[in-house]
Amino acid sequence: MDQLVTTTAAGGSIRVRAAVTTSLVAEARERHDCAPTATAALGRLMTAAALMGGALKGQQRVALQIAGAGPMRNLVAEAFPSDDAIGVRGMTPHPEIDLPLNGKGKFDVGGAVGRGVLQVTRSHESGQPYTGIVDLVSGEIGEDIASYFANSEQTPSIVALGVLAGPRGVIAAGGVIAELLPGAPAQTIDVLERSAAALPPVTGLVRDGADAWAIAQALVGELAPKRLRAVPVRFACRCSRQKVEAAMRGLGAASLAEIVREGDSQRVTCDYCKRLYVLTPQEIEALAQPA
């Protein structure tokens, strides 16, 4: 089962979130019919969203959007509370992108994404959303998330994200983010940096059976981690028929009347989950009536 674990380490001077997201990424791959490189890119971003959304409550949301010059162009992932879990959804307009492996024998996510920007929007239950934008460092997503924390939130962080996939599906996926909190002693920082340098690939850990807690321990096991919270992670979508109807009303009475005259049902597919909504001419006519 996919799960996210939140811990502290080194007497509370480090906050760590680690997650296994294999089923989440596998469902996204299936819903969008993603090629392997696209699966790796979208899966890394969705895993990052899950990790950053680990503390969300109520109506809070975090949305990550990459706008790049590479063939994938855009990727979006969003995390939000969903019942007793962290719900995550994601999409890309070019799920067919598949590039040769890079010089290290890994997915060329950086080549698929290209140069561009990462935008992170945090929506709260009250007040205006907060948005931070940073230039992409490499397009490999993990390094770009770390750059966002350092430059937009002034929080030095270690970020490791991974997706192991092939033509037949997703084998392993997961990630970990360790944030250095204000006042972290230099010795603690040194230990964390050494541990990060020695950390095995997250996908290897997950493939070999590691859960989210084991991933966190692999990074900060020398720093006395304290487990605080564990929560399931799953694919979820915020679309609904009511939202589709509201969007149709936004077309205006004249446009809706024209649709009714043409006599065709309208088919609307959610970009995130691919759920199909069908509205008949009679239903569209009802939407055109004053509330």
Helix coverage percent: 25-40%
Number of strands: 12
Cα-based radius of gyration, to the nearest Å: 21 Å
- What composes the largest sheet? 10 strands, mixed
- Main structural class: alpha+beta
| Strand residue percentage | 25-35%
Quaternary state of this entry equals: single chain
How are the strands ordered across the major sheet? 7-6-3-4-5-10-1-2-9-8
Number of separate helices: 10
The overall average pLDDT, rounded, is 95
* Poorly predicted runs: none
- Topology as a string of helices (H) and strands (E): EEHHEEEHEEHEEHHHEHHEEH
Shape: globular
Short précis:
With 291 residues, this protein is of the alpha+beta class.
Quick tags:
two-stranded antiparallel sheet, 32% strand, 10 helices, alpha+beta, 291 residues
